[in-house]
Design brief:
Blueprint: E1 2-8, H1 14-28, E2 35-41, H2 53-61, H3 78-81, E3 84-87, H4 90-100, E4 107-110, H5 126-129, H6 132-154
Parallel strand pairs: 1-2, 1-3, 3-4
Helix pairs in contact: 1-6
The structure holds 4-nitrophenyl phosphate (4NP).
4-nitrophenyl phosphate binds next to loops.
Organism: Bacillus taeanensis
Family: Belongs to the low molecular weight phosphotyrosine protein phosphatase family.
EC number: 3.1.3.48
């Protein structure tokens, strides 16, 4: 099983959106028994909460399931247990690298690094911008390319 973890700051806006959109894509490609998807936040303020209303509305509108999703904070073991850890922005990425230290981890990178023609490198935080549509557009292109990358690398 290939395990993929999306990481943002609060785990209520961006990483749950990436988790849900990526899982939907994985299922549509018939890979749900080969790729497992999860998300977590570097911060712990929203532990146990549902995704943000803006993320819920957007996903529901597009018939993408949010069933069972609850915010959690990233744990040290996650760095050993997930082969792909995908940050939403440079701050998340820095926090992940600090947590990983000199450990031998799986792939740690930023979502929009998979979109070389993207106009931004970080997924802007809609908790502050309130622009969930923009997040969806970036997450949609990032997750598509990420899945291509993983399929190629894992020979799936
Ligand atoms: P997210 O957005 O990292 O995309 O889930 C945030 C949600 C909550 C907070 C910050 C960012 N917060 O400071 O509570």
């Amino acid at each position: 099983m290939v395990r993929v973890l999306f990481v943002c700051l609060g785990n209520i806006c961006r990483s749950p959106m990436a988790e849900a959109v990526f899982r939907d894509l994985v299922t549509k490609e018939g890979l749900e028994h080969k790729i497992e998807v999860d998300s977590a936040g570097t911060g712990g303020w929203h532990i146990g909460n549902l995704p943000h209303e803006g993320t819920r509305e957007l996903l529901t509108k597009r018939n993408i399931s949010i069933e069972g999703m609850k915010a959690r904070q990233i744990a040290d073991d996650d760095l050993d247990e997930f082969q792909y850890i995908i940050a939403m922005d440079a701050q998340n990425l820095g926090d992940l690298h600090r947590m990983a230290g000199r450990r031998n981890t799986g792939y740690i990178g930023r979502l929009l690094d998979f979109v070389p023609d993207s106009r931004v490198e970080d997924v802007p935080d809609p908790y502050f911008t309130d622009n969930f549509d923009e997040v969806y557009e970036l997450v949609e292109s990032g997750t598509k390319r990420l899945l291509e990358f993983i399929r190629h690398r894992e020979k799936l």
